[in-house]
Amino acid sequence: MTDAPHFSIDPAAFAADPYPALARMRREAPIAFVPELGATLLTRRDDIHRQEKRIEVFSSHQPDGLMSVLMGENMMRKDGDAHQAERRALFPALSPRTVAQHWRSVFEAAANDILDDLAPLGACDLVTDYAMPVSAAALIAITGLSGMTRAEMDRVSQHMIDGCANYLGDPEVEARCHAATALIDSHIDRSFDMPPPKSALAVQRAAGLPMQSLRANIKLVISGGQNEPRDAIAGIAWALLTHPDQLALIRRGENTWQDAFAEYARWISPIGMSPRIVARADSVGGVRFDPGDRVFLMFSSAGRDEAHFDRPDAFDVTRDTGAAIPFGAGPHFCAGAAAARCLIAEVALPLLFDRLPGLRLDGPVPFKGWAFRGPTSMPVAW
């Protein structure tokens, strides 16, 4: 058991807004055991950046972890050669070249179709009526699960990530997660013999991955490829609508949609943390870690580390975000980063603000979550 100082949180308050508690941890106990989460949190950027790469100590291999138990042992829960082999098998579906040459046009067609339906309405919930279906359409294409509806894709992704963040052990959350994974397996079975070209299903099948690995990696792509782009699309739109001066910078070409995406991912990281398990005894910053200790690398806290970012709680698209690590920094760097940047910054956001002139907020925008964070609703009008 680690000898890290204890730092207690109110789980409800942490889910509502984790940033005040994380700021206190960075100041008072940057490596702290949080009993309510049963894990030791690393909250400073440099500690996370350095220790994430030390897979011999902070291992992703967690056969008893929530993700492995609920979704199967995917490549994110493997290290070394095993991880790299499955990453190479999946890469042809997610490479920057495939995204640019194959998926971008798919993303644009789906976004324009959705906006065709929305434009005459004059108002909508941007989360459920735009960000969700745009992300789901992209993910249906990338996974190759062409029989799945957009609503199904959003639901199974949410229920899986809820399950993976179910550190309080809610049985209803676990049951919904099991139902979601069963539905995904049924769609994999339906599409397996003739998967769409370039899809994650097709490239893994062609690489000859074992069926259990293929299934687990499809679930991984869904868990990270639906809710996070959905939350980022809606969240960045909210950030720009509440900072009209910065939206004006983008409209004038002084800054870019990619700048807005990078700054938002630093400021309100859609993926707030990544779990690790201690594989062998070690110490970091004077704190002892023992085998079996659970560790959370808090990417959300790294993005607001005062040692690297001036006014870290402010949204500023002119900021140099080079030190931020919202996609990770080690061998587990997000495999879908190129697809996410394309979908969000090259397609969904520019089309949204182009096709819905006069877009404005039309009500409060609540946020929730700490392991995964985003707006739960966003009423807008135009």
TrEMBL record:
GO terms for molecular function: heme binding; iron ion binding; monooxygenase activity; oxidoreductase activity, acting on paired donors, with incorporation or reduction of molecular oxygen. InterPro entries: Cyt_P450 (IPR001128), Cyt_P450_B (IPR002397), Cyt_P450_CS (IPR017972), Cyt_P450_sf (IPR036396). Keywords: Heme, Iron, Metal-binding, Monooxygenase, Oxidoreductase. Pfam families: p450. PROSITE patterns: CYTOCHROME_P450. The keyword Nucleus does not apply. Belongs to the cytochrome P450 family. This is Cytochrome.
